DNA sequence: TTGAAAGCGCTAACAG
DNA sequence: CTGTTAGCGCTTTCAA
């Protein structure tokens, strides 16, 4: 219970607290001899400086906060891996906040973060977030923010994403090339950057390739499996698309389940391609064509920039979007 | 940058710091009138108490640490969800540490945690951990520890697991009932509680049902996809089992990949069942029979007990193992 | 090269 | 009911 602190080290060594403190941080004006003695005892007693106390002086908690919509999703899981690897390498700690796509929760988290618990924030915004004032408040407090994946353009900071528009375009083009004539897009909330960009890519591809003459089947899904299943069932029953481009993995899974239930053959009756980082995409029946995002790299890059900002005080986060490309991997679900 | 603190509130209200502090915590000996005034201004200015400062007095950081082997795994993802839901409900923050199955990293994390950064620890130990002194050190410092999934019996605390032995037994029995005569077990490190219990269940089922007359094909996998692939390839080529019970999802995925490459038909040539929380188990080709663990519940229960310990000072974590049952879900991969 | 002392923001004992 | 004061563990002038 009684932990070793600087005071105890000082007592044991017959030194002042100040000297010990300076020795521990390898200060220039402490003799090597003293430093050695201090270091030795610190190691022996496994002294760990109290981060809360040091925060009070330095206003740095060596902690970053990560706010995510969800975690049961391979994309975010990989992103966290990237974030964690970068953070721990630099001696930072990572607090996780899950908004569960709920704006209120996101607001509560950001509000709390004004307390100084973390030095900076990585965020992928909830799909229900349309008002960004909670983040502007954080920004005003001087907390560095880096957006990843679901970004918001009107912040003067770095955003790290993949090429959503281009990928949406290519996914749709791929379906066209595989002979689809009635292509639907299962979109994620178009108030999200990724939702709107993926949908734009879809629409542009239809137009450029002169498919469906100005028509489009764009279904904006919500954040509920039951409702989304209804929406997609309706689509399959009434619009009867021969190609589906799903903006996120979850929609593709629903499609697979529905196709099985409705005895629709993938890819014969309907071809499916989806943004996805599922490990088992190639083992599905049939193997799912995917746009695979560089999730780990996106997380790592976002974390790396945030940490750079925290460590170097005269480094400013540039107001730009860093784009790391996704890869289209065609599999049987879109075979001709 | 300049954050609102108690001092500022006090100045603005012409009250003492102590009064404001007490008013904020709704203390009995402050008049309702004063409380209202304080609360109102606090809300207006969005006052957030500094957790580091309050730690220094109260020795409570309202933070728990979660140490996990990995995160790109549906089991742990769900467990985190359970932990997070419980923690945030009680106003606690969750720091994530990923050991990546590396004992050294685990030790480094636990060592750091002696600093007071977190009030308690939830841990699922790395497969390379055989020496538990780093955790005993933490325990000595008075940090409550709760084990989940990969537990260690010789700590005087709560462990939350699933019925690994029983599930291993049932999985093997299931293969036997489906007609398998040569059943292999792909075990995770048997120095882990889960590894050893699942393997014991396997062996006991073979014995009880008098299959393979005392023989067994128990392959202890390592923590590397390439090496594991070699091990399993060897198994399929030389031992030619007609049934495989995989201790973790990753091994089952390797089996699927190898069977495809080697043109082995699942379930005709070899039947496969695996511990797994994969969302897409039923969409695989063929659908994978699983033992599905109550991962969310395990995480939640573990967190709930830890938090109870942190909140109620005369509650002691009981020295027992809480078992939440898994469910065997037969699918085509073990069909007869 | 070392030490004394102030103070980060907050809480809690005690006094008024 | 409100305020004064000391101190949590640490860093950082400033003085010796």
TrEMBL record, chains A, B:
PROSITE patterns named among the record's database cross-references: HTH_LACI_2
Keywords: DNA-binding, Transcription, Transcription regulation
GO MF assignments: DNA-binding transcription factor activity; transcription cis-regulatory region binding
SUPFAM superfamilies: lambda repressor-like DNA-binding domains, Periplasmic binding protein-like I
Protein name: LacI family transcriptional regulator
Pfam families (UniProt xref): LacI, Peripla_BP_1
PANTHER family referenced in this protein's UniProt entry, alphabetically: HTH-TYPE TRANSCRIPTIONAL REGULATOR GALS, LACI-RELATED TRANSCRIPTIONAL REPRESSOR
DNA damage keyword on record: no
């Amino acid at each position: 219970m009684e932990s070793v602190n600087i005071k105890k080290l000082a007592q044991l060594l017959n030194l002042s607290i100040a000297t010990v403190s300076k020795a521990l941080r390898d200060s220039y004006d402490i003799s090597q001899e003293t430093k050695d003695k201090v270091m030795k005892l610190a190691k022996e007693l496994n002294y760990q400086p109290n981060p809360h106390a040091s925060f009070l002086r330095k206003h740095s908690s060596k902690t970053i906060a990560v706010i995510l919509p969800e975690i049961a999703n391979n994309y975010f899981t990989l992103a966290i891996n990237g974030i964690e690897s970068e953070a721990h390498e630099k001696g930072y700690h990572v607090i996780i906040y899950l908004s569960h796509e709920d704006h209120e929760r996101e607001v509560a988290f950001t509000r709390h973060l004004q307390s100084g618990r973390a030095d900076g924030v990585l965020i992928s915004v909830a799909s229900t977030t349309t008002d960004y004032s909670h983040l502007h408040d954080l920004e005003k407090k001087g907390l560095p923010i880096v957006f990843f994946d679901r970004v918001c353009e009107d912040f003067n900071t770095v955003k790290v994403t993949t090429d959503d528009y281009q990928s949406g375009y290519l996914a749709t083009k791929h379906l066209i090339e595989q002979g689809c004539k009635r292509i639907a897009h299962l979109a994620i909330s178009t108030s999200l950057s990724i939702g709107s960009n993926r949908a734009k890519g879809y629409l542009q591809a239809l137009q450029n390739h002169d498919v469906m003459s100005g028509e489009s089947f764009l279904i904006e899904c919500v954040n509920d499996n039951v409702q989304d299943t209804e929406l997609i069932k309706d689509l399959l029953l009434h619009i009867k698309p021969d190609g589906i481009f799903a903006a996120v993995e979850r929609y593709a899974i629903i499609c697979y389940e529905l196709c099985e239930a409705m005895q629709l053959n993938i890819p014969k009756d309907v071809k499916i391609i989806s943004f996805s980082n599922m490990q088992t995409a190639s083992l599905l029946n049939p193997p799912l064509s995917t746009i695979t995002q560089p999730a780990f790299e996106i997380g790592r890059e976002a974390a790396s920039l945030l940490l750079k900002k925290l460590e170097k005080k005269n480094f400013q986060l540039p107001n730009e979007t860093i784009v790391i490309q996704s890869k289209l991997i065609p599999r049987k679900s879109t075979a001709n």
